[in-house]
Amino acid sequence: MDEDLFSLGGDAPAPRTLSDRNRDHRAPLAVRMRPRTLEEVVGQHDALEPGSPLRRLVGADDSRTAPSSVILWGPPGTGKTTLAYVVAQSGDREFVEVSAVLAGVKDIREVVDQARSRLRTVGRETVLFVDEVHRFSKSQQDALLPSVENRWVTLVAATTENPYFSVISPLLSRSIVLTLESLGREDLDALVDRALEEERWLDGSVTLTADAREALLRLGGGDARKILTSLEAAAAAALMKESREIDAATLAQAVNRAAVRYDRAGDQHYDVTSAFIKSMRGSDVDAALHYLARMIEAGEDPRFIARRVVIAAGEEVGMADPIALQVAVAAMQAVQMLGMPEGRIPLAQAVVHIATAPKSNASYRALDAAIADVRAGRGQGVPAHLRDAHYAGAEKLGHGTEYRYAHDAPHGVVAQQYAPDDLVGVEYYHPKGHGNEELTGRRLEALRRILRSGRAGEPPR
């Protein structure tokens, strides 16, 4: 954490304003480019629309009209810290930044005590920015409650994890949660153009080829800070070679990563995705992990990858290993809560599970066959004994009168007709002899024999 942003009293350095940092040419490009006002912020249009909590927090002359606590939730590089700086710049406010990695309960109480004293003696408000608030323990978060409740500080907290899982309920109930999205292509293009052209940043000292721009945005994965850091490194590399042009090779060399060919809207996107799914289907775990790595390194949306993994678990593995779907869904939820890069770990686990699992597409093919019959008009009325018998007059219509309750049978299976008359005997599901579905097949054979026998029969095994 930057010591010049952490004021705990005594001889600690006073917080520096955003303007101070912009004048410091030694600061990283991502820091120098931090906006001074909300109008300079790129993207986050929903969070910054007129009347939004952030607009009210920045523009309110009367603090009673502004929210007392805001939690900014979003992936890295979406502007959480930037927005906190802009809030601090508005009005005559003291800005104090606390890192949840380093600060303890004692530190928080000292900050709050100073904020109360400042408010009481000189009437100056304090903006308390807590970065990575999800890393605070329950007792640390509890220590924030009185200051938020009594408006001793204006709390702006940032987190990359779902606050509904990582922030205590009392603090959530006193806060407004704003979700920040990864920047879109148009916003990122505008950000790169500003970095290249404006005087206080790169000032036209370098240009960027089209291929290099594509690679830069891919490698950034929607993370504005990462994109600006990579651009700054590439600019330095180009100028060291006495060149004013950044090409893809210079960029790759500067960030020490290959400029992976991958167009999210073009052939590479569909080709790699197709190969990824077919590798899992074909049980080639190494190839599947390769294509997973290519998508991750190219900045593919991890939620898109997770959805493909869930589909593969149901479509390619199915009942041959029912646990595969649970693993895939858990991986998708983990990606949503963790974000990247940590989300790659559960994704890899799910891909390995699916690729190495026994395969069967019998369950989804069974549904497709049933859908085809429905679309063809097959399937007459529901048998009378299965119809709803809970309303007045249903018994006179014969609804439910001959229904046999399965749990009354010795083994929980009773012989009776369930399908419509014109579909009696039709079999959609044909389990394969792979993995768990081999046992399912033997049980299904016994079940069908009992259901069609007219008697209870032997228990299915």
Give a summary of the structure in a few sentences.
The chain is of the alpha/beta class and 461 residues long. It has four domains: 3-179, P-loop containing nucleotide triphosphate hydrolases (Rossmann fold, 3-Layer(aba) Sandwich); 185-255, Helicase, Ruva Protein, domain 3, CATH 1.10.8; 267-356, Up-down Bundle (Zinc Finger, Delta Prime, domain 3); 377-451, post-AAA+ oligomerization domain-like, CATH 1.10.3710. The chain is built from 19 helices and seven strands.
How would you describe this structure to a colleague?
The structure is a single chain. The chain is α/β, with parallel strands linked by helices. The chain folds into four domains: 3-179, Rossmann fold; 185-255, Helicase, Ruva Protein, domain 3, CATH 1.10.8; 267-356, Zinc Finger, Delta Prime, domain 3 (Up-down Bundle); 377-451, post-AAA+ oligomerization domain-like (Orthogonal Bundle), CATH 1.10.3710. 47% of the residues lie in helices and 7% in strands. The chain has 19 helices and seven strands. The strands form two sheets. A five-stranded parallel β-sheet has the order 2-3-4-1-5, sandwiched between helices. Strands 6-7 form a two-stranded parallel sheet. Helix 9 packs parallel to helix 11, helix 13 (267-281) packs parallel to helix 15 (302-317) and helix 15 runs antiparallel to helix 16. The protein is extended. The protein starts with 17 loop residues before the first helix and ends in a 10-residue tail after the last helix. Mean pLDDT is 81; it is low at 1-23 and 455-461.
